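User: Run a structure prediction on this.
Assistant: Running it now.
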Amino acid sequence: MAAITYFNLDRNHSLSGKPIKRLCRALKTKEIQPHRLNFYDCLLNSADGGELADAVRCSPSMRVLWMNWNDYDDQVAELFASVVNEGHQLQELNMTRTQIGGKGAVCLLNAASKSRHLCTLLMSQNHIDDSIGPTLGKLLARGMGARFINLIRNQITGACLRSAADNLPSSSSGDEVTGGENPTKVKMIENDIDYQSMEYLAEALSAVSSPTKVLFGDSSIDNGVLSDTNVHALLTKQLEEKRLGDGVVSFLYDLGCRGMVRLQQLLAQNPQLANQVKVLRLRNNQLDDTAMEVVISLFDSCRLEALSVYSNRTTSIGLSSLCRKLNSVTASSLHLRFLNIGRNKLSNGPGIKALAEFLRHQTPLEFLGLYTCQLTDDDVRPLIKALHDNDTLRFVDLGGNELMGKVLRWLKKLIRHNSTLEFVQLGRCKLEEKVVRHYVTTLRTCHHLKYVWMGKNDPPLPEEVFGGCVVDGSCIYEEWPSFL
């Protein structure tokens, strides 16, 4: 038993009580000396958590402990904080979705700010509130060693960031701001934080030259300078000096129309920077049709090869405006190969018809994402008809829509005329089994189709009905960039 270094007990719903006590006794007596323990979703309670804290204290070999998706209180968080404070060499502690609140989080953050061993502290999806502000400020200032703190989806507001900023040491306080080569990163996606508070914190971090990064989604405030993946906050001139790397600019979560305008202004004022932007990823930014007009204007300054506005508030009207713009760009000036407009409400309007008109022209577009856009069979009919004359599109994602089966009949006709289409995604739709059985043979015998998926249908389809259509399901992940 002593040779076993990893115990994976996730989703074991019979551990609470006596079984966990026996396991803890084995840890204390060093009958087992694991480096990693995983208790994900084991229905453990606070009493079990207390037992584990005492056992980990007596288990110096422990490096990674996952306690996530169980029901603990702040007292358990305090117990683990004391273990870290006593110098235990625990490197990763996962307390995601464990019901801990601000009091427990303060104890763990204090321990993390002092520990030279704890690298990763995960506390997302809890009840952590603004009371962590002062402690967070001290942690941001220290930034010792390689560290990642996850506070996704809690009850944190802008007041927390302002409190953290106010508790950063000033140059006159005599407190030292330290940091290793890999500074602390604090991730705070999906909290109720306004961009003014982010700006306030950014300015404070810049003033003390903190080595810390505060991340909102894939975005960051880094020493008060917004990186090439920022949301909300100031788009400062330092962005010009950032290396874009492959021309990818990613703004995730709550950029909004105002932030979009600021991005457009920055790129319009800096042609050299704009020329470097090839990929623009704008997922989850609450961009409505007004903001889409700003996105459209970026085609005047950037040589965009890929655009993702996945999961926003764009409607059919916004899509129609985008397609009109694309149609107005001369063939030699249009470089757009990837377009993902999934998770927007695009039914009942001119958008799909405008998109169909765009696809009839000579276009470099290879990838089209329309996942979960509330489209019906009748909505997509003009789109599929337009593909009869298209010789560039290789991938169409129509999954998650209200498609019943007519789409398969039109797809059968399409593949007789179109020889470039290789990937068709129809998963999570409402395809009727009898219709699928009728047309699936044709799809199987089409040699240029590499991938047709109809999984997770509602109601579910028997796998033998469509399984033969998937020639090589893995190839899709190699063919198309993950940023879309």
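The CA atoms of residues 41 and 362 lie 52 Å apart.
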